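Reviewer 2 asked us to include a model.

Predict the structure of this chain.
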Amino acid sequence: VWILKKRFQFPQVLIFKHSSLMAQKREEVSDYYGKRLASSKDLQTNACCIGEVTLTRKQKQILGKVHEEVLNRFYGCGSAVPVGVPEGAVVLDLGCGSGRDVYLASGLVGENGKVIGLDMTDEQLEVARRHVDYHAQVFGYSKPNVEFVKGYIEDLASAGITDNSVDVVISNCVVNLSPNKELVFEEIYRVLKPGGELYFSDVFCDRRISDELRADQVLWGECLSGALYIEDFRRLMAKVGFADYRICESSAVTVANPEIEKQVGAIKFYSHTVRAFKLPSLEDKCEDFGQTATYLGTADEQPHALFLDAGHAFITGRRTPVCGNTADMLSLTRFAKHFTVTLRGPHRGLFGAAAAAGCGFGSGGCC
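Predicted model (structure tokens):
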């Protein structure tokens, strides 16, 4: 029996009381993905299976060059590599598995960029490392720009990831598998450069999951019982420093297994792709300072419009009113060179739809 300790005001953000029990949970997950699953066809639900996701032409072209074994051994619930990752960027993939998203990012950042894939499962890392030279060759690089590291997503320091060293952190259906999600997000915030970006896909749910279900090894391994209740996720993100986050894509997880559907009962699961930035200036509400943003149409593969999240599509050449948080996301990050953003004026209260709806941050573009 493993003991759990509830911490702070987030009942679902469970912390393992003893390191030995945390190690036990990690071992269970590593065994599930390293030994029990030979390919994505062995999964018992569709929670860790990528369905229809939005990919650009360049992303599709790069994935078309990724080795077949890497693709077959990959598990994920969405598209975790953002459009327009700049050449030369440093990208960190948490729970990289067989390396599909690492190699996708590798093709985007160019030979002078760097992609670090971190995973705790030897069998997955073996697959990923086996094809390093292959991908350098098919991408036309004189040397590989990827590195695969064994380690834990709750302890990036031990894996040699230093403070303020990463431009973009990505992850695909892995955070739900962590026994200490608070540490995961604290570490992500630590390693990101100022203005750096977290972009990840994961499974979320509409209520807190019982300890009984969370103790089920199959439900946990299938990315279900470790899913975060979306409101606890919102509170946790704010606590570690991400005062605002945006949902970029969302879809329902249908489970597609009658026995497991009976186990989870009325719980609804969703796959969300989330974007957040390391910006201390962000607030917990969408505030109005009379600002506008104009997209210049210069971002890679986005000549006509740039989509910040599900609620913000910026049309080229069109001045668009934005809240203070959105203005900072566009002017203090990698997007800055692609936008003209006006300076803050006198505070006008809550911004637009946020004022009407009474909503705060993290609702996928409430403003």
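DSSP finds 13 helices and 15 strands in the chain. Residues 1-18, 357-362 have pLDDT under 50 and may be disordered. We have added this to the supplementary material.
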